Structures are given as C-alpha cells and as structure tokens.
Automatic annotation (TrEMBL), chain A:
Keywords in alphabetical order: Membrane, Transmembrane, Transmembrane helix
Source organism: Spirosoma endophyticum
Name of the molecule in the record: Uncharacterized protein
Membrane-spanning intervals of the chain: 21-42
UniProtKB/TrEMBL annotation, chain B:
Record protein name field: Dolichyl-phosphate-mannose-protein mannosyltransferase
Gene Ontology MF: a single term: glycosyltransferase activity
Transmembrane residue ranges: 6-25, 32-51, 63-82, 94-116, 188-207, 213-235, 271-296, 308-327, 373-391, 398-418, 430-451
Keywords of this entry: Glycosyltransferase, Membrane, Transferase, Transmembrane, Transmembrane helix
Amino acid sequence: MRKPSATPLYKARISTNARQFWFTQIIYLMAGSLTLFAILSLPRNGKWLSTTIDRFYNQRQKLGKQTDVATRKREGYGDAYIYTELIRQRCQPDDYFLVPPQQYLIRNAYQQGKSTGYAWLYPSVLYYHLGKAVHLLDMTAPDSLLQRATHTFWVYENKIFLLTFKEHNRPLVLGEFRKYDPHFFAYTPKQARAYYTQSKP
Amino acid sequence: MSLSITLVIVAQFLIGFGVVTRLRVATNGFSLAGLSMLAGMGVSSVLPFIVQFVHLPIAPKSVFFGLGLVALLSLLLLRGQLIYLREIAAWSRLSVRLCELPFLAFWAYLLFISAWKCAWFPNQPFDTIVGPDLVATFAVKEHTLVSSVFTEHLSSVSVFSNQPFYAPFTAMQQVIYLLAAEGHGPFAFGKVWLTVLVVAFGLFFYGELRERIHPLLAGILVTLLACAPELFAYTLLVQTDWANAAFFAAGVILLERYLESAQRGYLTGSALLFAMACWTRTETIFFVPIGSLLVFAKTIRSSPATAIKRSVGLFLACLLPVLFWNYSFLRGYVPLPPHASLGSIHGITEGYVPHLLQIYKSMNAQVVFDADYWNYAVPIFLFLTVLNVISFRDKHGLSLLIWIAAVYILFGLFIQHIDGANVPYTFRRGFFKLLFLMYVYLGTTSLFRWLSTWLYRWEGRPDNSTVSVKAGS
C-alpha cells in the first residue's frame, strides 16, 4: 500500500503555522521598535543621546584617524602631558625636579590650572608620566636634599615656567615655596577654587 | 585587533568556560558565554602573582604561557559535560527573535562608541593613573609587581592616598593587556579588557533576564539600564567599580538561583564571583555577610550544620582574596612606606544617629535621586516595584529586595566609619551594584512573570521562562 504523501491539508497547516509565526514576529518587531523609540524619546534619554553620545561620535570622526600614541596621549592627558613633556625634554635622569607646593601654583596662576585644579602636579601623577626620567622631590624633603634640586615650576606674570635653579635664585624660590603648606593637596578643581577664594597666605 | 590580544581574550574565555561548564551554572548559551568570560578574567588576574612568586619576570612570554597552561587545564574540566553543553546551547535557547533586533542594534550603537573611546584615549581618571594603572604600568616596565612605585616612589613623597593599594583585579587586567599590546597599536593603553568585561556581563545579564522573562521585556529592562549616563560613562573609563558591580551582581544572580534550587554548583559559582568582587574592591567583603545570612536562613530548617557550613564557607571564600592582598602581599611581600594608609576605621562619635541620617540624606539627594546620573532607571524601578507589591503581594524576589536594602544601609555605615569613603565618589560608583540588582529584581517580580506569561500565551508558545537545565550537584 502506498504511503500517503504530505497532504494538501498538512501543507496548508504548515503554511498557516509559518504565516502565524512570521505574523507574530513582525508584530513583535514593531512592538520592540516602538517601545525602544518610546524609551529613547523620553526627554532625558533624548537629550543624553543628542548631546553626550553625539559628541562622542563627533569626536571619533575628528580623532579616529589619528592612531599614533603620542597624539592620543596629548589629547587625553591635556596639561599633564604638556608639563611633563617639558620636564622630560629639559631634565636628565640624574636631575632633581622640585614639585612646587600646589597652593603656590593655585595662588599665583589660578587661571591657568583652574579647570584641572592642578591635579597633574600630584607626585604620583608626575611619576606616572615621568617614571625615572628625573628624580622627584617635594618640599617635605630634608634641606640637604632640597639643595640638590635642579629644576622646578615658577610663576611669572601668572604664567608657569620651568625654572633652572642657580645659586642666586635658590634661596628666593625655596623661601617663597616655604610659605605654603607642603602637605596640602586639592584633588578637584572645586577644592582648588575653595583654597583660591580663601584669604591670601 | 592584534594577535596577542585575541589570544589573551580566547585564553581568558577558555579558563572561565571550563570552570563555568563544570559548575553548570549557566542557563543558556548567552549566559554561558558571558559568565565564562567574566570568570576567566577573574581567575586570570591571579596569574601575574603566580608568575611573580615563582620568580619569573612579568613579561609577555611568562604571562602568556601561564594563561595558555591554565586555559588547557581548565579545558580538562569539560570532560563529561557534553550533554549539558548541548542542552544549553540548543537553538531554542540561542535563537534571537525579531523583537530583540532593535534593542541589540541600540546596544551595539552605544557599545561601539564606548569601545572606541575606551581604546583610543589613555587612562584619564585621577584614581586610575595614581592607582591601578600606575601599579600596572611600572610592573610591565620593570617586569615585577614589586616595582619602584612601591620600593622608591611612595616612600619618597609626602602626599599620596590609597589608590595604589586598591584591590588588584583592575591593575592585573591592565598588566595582562599592556603586555599584549606591547605599547603600540589601537589598544596601546591596555584598556580593552574593560570593553570585553562590559560585553561579557551584558551577555550574562541579558541571558539571565531573558531566561526568566520574555525577551521583549528583558530588552526593555536592559535598555533602561543602558541609558543611565553614569553607568555608561564607566564603560569607557577604567576604574574598579564597573568590574566590581559586574562580579557582585553576577554573584547575587547565582546565589538567587541557589536559593531557588538548592543546587550546590550555584553556591560555588556565586562564591567565586563574590570573591572576584572582593578582589576588585576590598570593601565588598562587608556586603558578603548578606549572602551568608540568606544562605543560612534558607538551609537552617532542613540542616542546621549544612546551613552553618555553607554560609561560613561563602564568607571565608571571599575573605581569602582580601587577606591575601591586604596582608600577605601588601604588608608582607611588598615593603610599604611607614606613612602608608590602607584605610582606617573610626569609631562611634557624638551625634552618631543624626550624622548617619545626614549621610543617608546626602546619599539620596546626591546620588540615588540625581536624575543626571541615572536618567529614568531609579524612578522606573521604584514605580514598578510599588506596582508589583500592590498588585501581587507575594514574596517573589524578596531576597533581592533584601540585598538592595541591606547594601544601601551598609553603604551609609561604611561612609560613617571608614576614612576616605564618601558619598560623591564611593557611593556614586558603588551605586552601580544597586542599579544592577534593581533590574535583576524587576526580572524576578510576579509583575514581569505575569506579563511574560501573557506574551507567551499570545504568541501560542509554552512559557519557557523557567530554568530546566540542572545545575551541578
């Protein structure tokens, strides 16, 4: 006896099921899209996408083609890169760089560092960028060690310069730095501003 | 992507794949893939210490050989697991439905730019460059974990905080990926591991939600989380908190499975992930007792001895990495400068309760209800939770609500008593944990189960939101 082949009824059922399946899927796709659209249209979500995320995509368009590490570091580290590169270029591994008290820079060159709070001056940040390119000293070092300092940052007319110590300027610079608390550190621009708006030392 | 980075990712995946498969804690292919990567990253972060202790240099050859060896050893755990793997990798558990595509496309849109920014820029957060990345960079430069950061730099400066002593997961991932990148190419800064971790956790989280509730609902929940700006920001900024929250939430999810099924594989998996969370941020150890108490409460009636054994075991498993890092390695193996502060506890002061209440008030005002950080994620969670409680009045997900409340309360006490812990930084980033738990909770509520059943019925399918894959014994 011949086995019954797939009957038209069976085929029709499969076809109905497939149609039903795809109908459900399409409805779901529409529901998913609409729900997503609704979530993303909520005011805060929309604003976040059109400002922050858009800005990131624009940044990628602007910077994405530049792949060399130095450019990326310059862009990412900002002030820290500028100043640590200056130290790296001008100092030798056996030189001693005296980290000025942060209060001194905030007090005398606030405008220049107000957006970062001079966080790039934090000793570990300098070590992160410079490593053993130079010896780091801070104002808590013993006097004998301070006398070895070869370079520091000095403010002149509200601008920061890399200063090379000479016999004649050393007492003046150290005397000025000693007016400030060497243990103070403002980790954020807000803390730096709070210090700046206080009365002068 | 460079060959060495690809090999590292594959090795980390295989390390986790063996462990996760052996424990049988994944419920579908998505959660298996995500959890394998997460666990593999966690386990592999121990490897640089082993290399250090056997007096080999922290260099590509030694570390990659170690990774390969551990991956091979881990594959031995796959013996006899083929049926289980076939079951959870079945097409019905893996196939993506059309309704998920818009959500997947949106997440890909966010992930793409997150991955680009993460890889293109060097590490910028202050905490990272004076902490984990400082430790990692010099470990790679000087081929030792006991680098000049610990031996020379910290002892020569007067101002430094505790970031170099942060729990080591982040630093070790940086070490592994910096070695793989070799200082050049698109991934020169070693940060790509963060993107891998975010994708891995995302897969696991979505896979777990999708297993419990309808994919359409799971997609909505994940999208609400994805639109939390602060949570997104830390997918591209290397810090300890995103990884900590991912391990912690994954641990809670597995513990929840254990409380539902009493299968020991889930408890072991959860202990592993909690231990990794403590390996990422030390203070997590204060939150682990919540899990121990839940395990104890679950088991005490059937077997008091087992209840004590398992709850204490969970806590001890998490204490191990904390003790190793803070006491064996930092105070024993590494010479610390005498003025190093690894965090200290202060006692009860005058006006204890008003001060504590003030902390909770600040936590709410500055973090929980600050919509700039989370957009709609918190209000929607609160609304749906209240709706669920009013409508269903049952205990589904109660243990998760206990987690959320207890972690929140402990954070307040933590800020009150630990030097350096604060609301704007510690709690803001610690809130990631709570945010994940809130959405895990929503996925277990009767409200979402009811909605899922309704959707499955409408499409004429049986409700497949229950877990049928058996966990390890």
